[in-house]
Write a sequence for this structure.
């Protein structure tokens, strides 16, 4: 089965579970492994960013939260962004322009994550939820259609943030995932240590740049393999004509998990330079 077909299937599953609550069972103690609004009319799982804010406001030590985030992070890292997150799928649908990644803006998502926590602590309110574009799409608009919400200043603020983010997505592929998503920032901390990721056969890589041109995040996968900005979507694997890249589960320290180096030690027996 083609890689993209499998990914579309898991993304559809993420939408069915996260947005439409197809099980019909409220899993109130299960964190959703992606950006998700618990105010969505059919939500059955907990939003990690919303929970984080509420834990900070209540002053609760977040043992369960940290444990679940670590489990998700070590399993797939930002693979959840590329394979499961419903709002990540929206990013994919609007990924018309694949432009280069602006390295200087990479820390923004971590600053958004930090700012979200600081705002919850200092202001005792879930301010990110009041601005979150995923909430705009899956909560504000559905509730308006159901006649529960009304057009008021908070609703208009949600619509403004959603419009701005959608415009950004249309101009820059995966704009939200690249620069602003706090959940992506949280998972990026585990990206190199996760069991799911890219592998590179350096002896096959010709540095042709096809992987970079196909990458929706605008990075160079062969030189930034499994970096915090890689969502492990596998588009680079599909485009690699030499078969140098592969994706799947392996130990974080396995051969091939390192990026291509311009110069380095000679390849081992399998053509992959040993780890330093």
């Amino acid at each position: 089965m083609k890689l993209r077909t499998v990914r579309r299937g898991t993304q559809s599953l993420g939408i069915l579970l996260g947005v439409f609550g197809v099980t019909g069972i409220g899993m109130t103690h299960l964190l959703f492994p992606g950006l998700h609004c618990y105010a969505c009319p059919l939500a059955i799982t907990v939003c990690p960013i919303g929970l984080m804010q509420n834990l900070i406001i209540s002053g609760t030590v977040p043992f369960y939260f940290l444990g679940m985030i670590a489990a998700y992070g070590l399993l797939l890292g930002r693979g959840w962004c590329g394979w499961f997150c419903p709002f990540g799928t929206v990013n994919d649908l609007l990924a018309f322009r694949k432009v280069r990644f602006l390295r200087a803006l990479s820390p923004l998502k971590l600053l958004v994550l930090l700012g979200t926590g600081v705002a919850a602590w200092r202001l005792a309110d879930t301010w990110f939820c009041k601005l979150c574009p995923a909430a705009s799409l899956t909560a504000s608009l559905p509730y308006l259609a159901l006649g529960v919400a009304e057009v008021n200043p908070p609703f208009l603020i949600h619509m403004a943030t959603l419009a701005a983010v959608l415009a950004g997505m249309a101009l820059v592929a995966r704009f939200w995932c690249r620069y602003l998503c706090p959940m992506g920032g949280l998972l990026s901390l585990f990206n190199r240590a996760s069991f799911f990721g890219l592998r590179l056969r350096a002896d096959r890589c010709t540095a042709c740049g096809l992987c970079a041109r196909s990458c929706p995040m605008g990075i160079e996968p062969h030189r930034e393999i499994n970096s915090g900005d890689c969502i492990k979507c596998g588009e680079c694997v599909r485009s690699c004509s030499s078969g140098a890249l592969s994706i799947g589960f392996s130990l974080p320290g396995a051969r091939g998990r390192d990026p291509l180096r311009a110069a380095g030690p000679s390849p081992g027996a399998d053509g992959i330079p040993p780890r330093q």
About this structure: Residues 27 and 45 are 5 Å apart (CA to CA).
